[in-house]
Amino acid sequence: MNPSASAPKNASPLAHPNRFHHVALIGKFQAADTLQDLHGLALFLSGQGLEVSIERETARNTGITDFASVDVDDIGKQCDLAVVVGGDGTMLGVGRRLAKYGVPMIGVNQGRVGFITDIALEDYREVLPPMLQGGYDQELRGMMQAQVWRDAECVFEASALNDVVVNRGSASGMIELRIEVNDHFVANQRADGLIIASPTGSTAYAMSAGGPIVHPSVAGWVVAPIAPHTLSNRPIVLPFECEVVVEIVRGLGATANFDMQSLTSLQKGDRIKVYAAEHGLRLLHPVGWSYFDTLRKKLHWNEGAA
């Protein structure tokens, strides 16, 4: 367990700045109309009096050349805000790398679902100006750190904002896993796999596996089996500060996924350790933003209402 990690707080103790000064723009450059959307947003941000830089891969793949380009690490060192255009996947990839710098992020939704990219692309001209002046709600999303240990050696390490997933991969048949929490044996289970999800990730794969939706301010993990052999193997919510260890007992071709990062060909005896990361992700929302509004909209909870 990481003793320096603390549970995430929905309201950050950091004071709001009077306004931001240097913003980095990051985009999902594979999407259609990305060049037009990103360039228009860059001009808009510049028109608000901000220095604007474009993340290097975004600039290279869109051909935007009239703004300075910087890599992600330089964004962490030079910029006081990152605006990410895309879907949640884009936010996940960038957020993992920016978390250690404490750079706040605003998500502009160019995708379809968007639980953490909550500003619609067509609305940014109305929504962003007050946020850029310091009028926003802020939250800190807890992240997880994961390691894969093999014969007393750490062979892989990664951070994740959504989840860590151990599954059977392409092999047929179930895998058998041994689960420990804080060095205490919990269970051996046969299943297609196991998901360890943060509250942010509780609306992703874990929800599809029957896990609960966990509010982002709740300091906990969801541990959810994937198609377990025994139906009494149910999802469980664990404290944020605990360490979860999953050992491969039986099953060829098992894999581990850490958000969008993968490790294939896990071996019998490999141990995947998951614990709270030292840093969390700072997300900024418009004033009055509500997590329940996001759930109702994205999960269509209001359909059929009178």
Could you describe the 3D structure shown?
The protein has 306 residues and is of the alpha+beta class. It has two domains: 140 residues, Rossmann fold, CATH 3.40.50; 133 residues, Sandwich (Tumour Suppressor Smad4), CATH 2.60.200.30. 20% of the residues lie in helices and 36% in strands. It is built from seven helices and 20 strands. The strands form four sheets. A six-stranded parallel beta sheet has the order 3-2-1-4-5-6, with helices on both faces. Strands 9-8-19-16-11-12 form a six-stranded antiparallel beta sheet, with no helix packed on it. It has a six-stranded antiparallel beta sheet with strand order 15-14-13-10-17-18, with no helix packed on it. Helix 2 links the parallel strand 2 and strand 3. The longest helix has 14 residues. The chain is elongated, with a radius of gyration of 20 Å.
* Principal-axis shape: elongated
Query: So how many helices?
Result: 7
Largest sheet: 6 strands, parallel
> How much of the residues is beta strand, in percent?
35-45%
* Total domains: 2
Element-by-element helix/strand order: EHEHEHEHEEHEEEEEEEHEEEEEEEH
Architecture (CATH level 2) name of the largest domain: 3-Layer(aba) Sandwich
Rounded to an integer, what's the Rg over CA atoms? 20 Å
Low-confidence parts lasting 5 or more residues at pLDDT below 50?
1-15
Number of E-state strands? 20
- Structure classification: alpha+beta
User: In the CATH scheme, what's the topology name of the largest domain?
Assistant: Rossmann fold
Top CATH class of the largest domain: Alpha Beta
* Termini separation: 49 Å
Task: Please state the average pLDDT score.
Answer: 89
Strand order in the largest sheet: 3-2-1-4-5-6
CATH superfamily of the largest domain: Probable inorganic polyphosphate/atp-NAD kinase, domain 1
Percent helix range: 10-25%
